[in-house]
Write a structure and sequence with these properties.
The chain is of the alpha+beta class and 213 residues long. The chain is built from five helices and eight strands. The chain has two domains: 74 residues, no CATH class; 120 residues, Roll (Mannose-Binding Protein A, Chain A).
Length: 213
């Protein structure tokens, strides 16, 4: 009871040995097989359950193998693209009208903003407000600022407990140029560097790392 026999059922064996009076064995065979089918349909055979479980297991294994097969080439392609973007510092360039500043790029934005808003916009370009590390970088920025009559926020500020002049990355200012001290945020203009209230609206200079071509 409870299992589906794989051998011929008794009715089928009887039909094969004891034909009907009219010799119509086919009806008996058909009836016997129908009884067997109905018995299996009413109560699933354990063998059928095992085969179905095995079939789903095979499908799962094939799916995992296919996923691995098609995912590894994409990972390799990403690695290859990253490797192709590696270059020496001297080969790096500035794109989209940004100008070179040593190993960095800078851009003068003519959009009146507070110091914090200017910093946030620079960060949207994967950069920060302008910073100079030596006299050459300072002179390069000053030469571009002197062309116009505008004032530009740079990264210098003393919005800290010690009231020290620092850059946006936290490094201390090396006093390459005297700052006319009137506020907590510094800006650059044609005559030098001054500081005013951070909420005032000015243009600004962003700086970011140069890129491989």
């Amino acid at each position: 009871m409870g299992s589906c026999p794989w051998s011929h059922p008794p009715a089928l064996r009887k039909a094969a040995k004891d034909p009907t009076p009219h010799g119509n064995t086919g009806n008996w065979v058909h009836l016997a097989w129908r009884e067997r089918h109905e018995a299996c349909g009413a109560k699933p055979c354990p063998h059928g359950k095992k085969l179905m479980s095995l079939w789903f297991l095979i499908i799962g294994v094939v799916a995992v193998l296919l996923w691995g097969l098609f995912s590894f080439p994409r990972k390799s392609e990403v690695t290859r693209l990253i490797r192709n973007k590696t270059c020496g510092e001297e080969a790096k360039i500035c794109m989209n009208s940004w100008k070179k500043l040593n190993q960095n790029c800078f851009f003068l934005f003519h959009h009146k903003s507070s110091w914090l808003s200017a910093l946030e916009n620079c960060q949207n370009y994967d950069g920060t407000l302008a910073k100079f590390n030596n006299k050459i970088e300072l002179d390069t920025l000053m030469n571009h600022v002197k062309v116009g009559s505008s004032s530009y926020w740079i990264g210098l500020n003393k919005r800290n407990l010690l009231r020290m002049w620092v850059w946006t990355d936290g490094s201390k200012y090396n006093n390459l140029m005297r700052i006319q001290d009137h506020g907590q945020c510094a800006l650059m203009y044609k005559d030098g560097i001054a500081s005013i209230h951070c909420e005032d609206l000015n243009d600004y200079i962003c700086i970011k790392a140069s890129q491989c071509p």
